[in-house]
Amino acid sequence: MTDRKEEPVTDADLHAWLDGELPDERRVAVERHLQADADAARRLAAYRDQRALMAKAFGPLIDRPLPDALKPPFGRRRPGWGGGRTWAALAVAASLLLFVAGGAAGWLARGWAEPTPTTTRAFVADAVTAHRVFVVEVRHPVEVGADQEEHLVTWLGKRLGKPLKAPRLSARGYDLVGGRLLADGGGPAAQLMYQDATGRRITLYIRPSSDPADTAFRFSRDGSVQAFYWRDNGLAWAVTGDLDRASLSGIAEEVYGALNS
Amino acid sequence: MQPDETMPAQEIDDRALAAHVPRLRRYAAALVGNMTEADDLVQDCMEKALANRHSLRDPSRLGGWLLSILHNLHVSGLRWRRRRGPEVDVADFADDMALSAPPADRGAVRDFVRAFEQLSEEHRKILLLTGLEGLSYREVAEVLEVPIGTVMSRLARARERLRVLMEGGEEQVLRRIK
Q1: Could you give the dihedral angle defined by the CA atoms of residues A142, A204, A160 and A220, in that order, rounded to the nearest 10 degrees?
Q2: Residue A128 has pLDDT above 70, yes or no
Q3: pLDDT digits over B146-164, tens only?
Q4: Distance from B17 to chain A by nearest Cα, in Å?
Q5: What is the ipTM of this complex?
Q6: Which of A120, A228, B36, B47 is in Cβ range 3.0-4.6 Å of A75 for a Cys bridge?
Q7: B132–A59: do the CB atoms touch at under 8 Å?
Q8: Do B2 and A79 touch (CB under 8 A)?
């Protein structure tokens, strides 16, 4: 058996030293080599920097919130509104049928009867504020216009951690103007703006919901601005507009239907 | 038909898999240089792992087994993408990573990611497995199914290539064509 202590130091030894894989008996030889060979020492310093930068660059990825598709149960659903719906979404869809059958009054009464958590109240307040701030904008109502709809929804979906689409509301007379990314107390939020032929605007406000349970439609009024809001499939939605409740509720149903078709 | 959600074997598998997801996702994102693609990859990996869960004899090797599945899925995905020939914008990903870094490190992190994503697939894997995942040479050899000697020589070449890329400036490092 050769005495490894006396063998010349190789590049492999240097890497093994950096990775903590060098046998103890070689350590002294490598450290002596590094003191004598400035070039080797310089390269090793660069490799060590690489590793430190790798940890800084990719380390924080581990703390990013997971999209639903990466949470258990695995293998039984796909992301996206169209393809595999979750059972919860189906349950809400079924409730919505009851809503149609039972009449709006009963449904809304149920929504009112449930206590509204503070976070939900904050959510609808944020939605209404964002609505007020941006619907009056003439030159910059949106960040990304409807002409780049695909880019818009991909971008916003990525930031919200959920695939997103802009529902078609043309049957109700509203066309997509575009959308923007916003920040509120809960993190990223998205706003989509629609406009009718007379220039009247409504907004959809969307943000990821920490509460996975879907909810019924709820209604809120703040001055002349009214909002319908609900949770569906891990996102909280608010449809906000300065128009009568019946029209707004029709639009909210249209949005819900488009997202779950 | 829905599988029975209360089946204990299923629950254990889901939980065991879920524990690996954050690390696997981090690894996949760094490897492919794109969050959306990484999420798809990890999701496919979970589905494949569940479908083949009986082929894993030794549960203590779950982490390495998942990495192997992810690598295989990525290779077949690459083949598919190459046919379609799209381009991945590495600059966006580098900016994204830089935003999560402390302000003082942002420039260095961005340059690092741009250079890193220029490396070959083989080199990115070996650097991530040793540097980010903290696997030993032996574990890396098992995951990649190559001899330890190959792990060591490949690692040396990858580090040297990355050093040259980083010292050579960043202007040519904006896009990687897959």
Answers
A1: 130
A2: yes
A3: 999 999 999 999 999 999 9
A4: 8
A5: 0.86
A6: B47
A7: yes
A8: no
- pTM metric for this prediction: 0.55
Tokens 């409807």 map to which residue?
A146
Q: Which residues is A175 bridged to in the sheet?
A: A195
C-alpha to C-alpha distance for A254 and A88, rounded to whole angstroms: 19
Residues on chain B touching A71 (C-beta within 8 angstroms): 18, 21
Which chain B residue shows the shortest CA-CA distance from A71? B18
Give the structural domain span for B108.
88-178
Cα of B166 to nearest chain A Cα, Å: 9
The type of residue at A242 is D
Cβ contacts of A21 on chain B, cutoff 8 Å: 136-137
Structure tokens at B14: 């889901």
Residues of B in contact with A59 (CB under 8 A): 26, 132
Q: For chain B, how many residues are written?
A: 178
Give A193's strand partners. Answer: A178, A203
Distance from CA of A181 to the nearest CA of B (A): 16
- B94-147 per-position pLDDT tens digit: 988 998 888 888 899 999 999 999 999 999 999 999 999 989 999 999 999 999
Q: How many domains does chain B have?
A: 2
CB–CB contact B113 A57 (8 Å): yes
One-character DSSP codes across B72-117? HHHHHHHHHHHHH--EEEHHHHHHHHHHTS-GGGHHHHHHHHHHHT
Residues B111 and B64 in one domain: no
Three-state DSSP at B55 gives: helix
Of B55, B85, B115, the one marking the end of a domain is B85
Check CB contact under 8 Å for A67 and B2.
no
Q: Are B99 and B34 in a shared domain?
A: no
* Domain harbouring B106, CATH code: 1.10.10.10
Please indicate, yes or no, whether residues B78 and B59 belong to a single structural domain of this protein: yes
> Which residues on chain A place their C-beta less than 8 Å from a C-beta of chain B?
11-12, 15-16, 19, 21, 43, 46-47, 50-51, 53-64, 66-67, 69-76, 79, 158
Report residue B132: phi and psi, to 5°: -95, -45
Comparing CA positions, the residue from B104, B102, B125 lying closest to residue B33 is: B125
CB A44, CB A38: distance < 8 Å: no
Final residue before a domain boundary, out of B85, B103, B118: B85
Beta strands in chain B (DSSP E): 87-89, 175-177
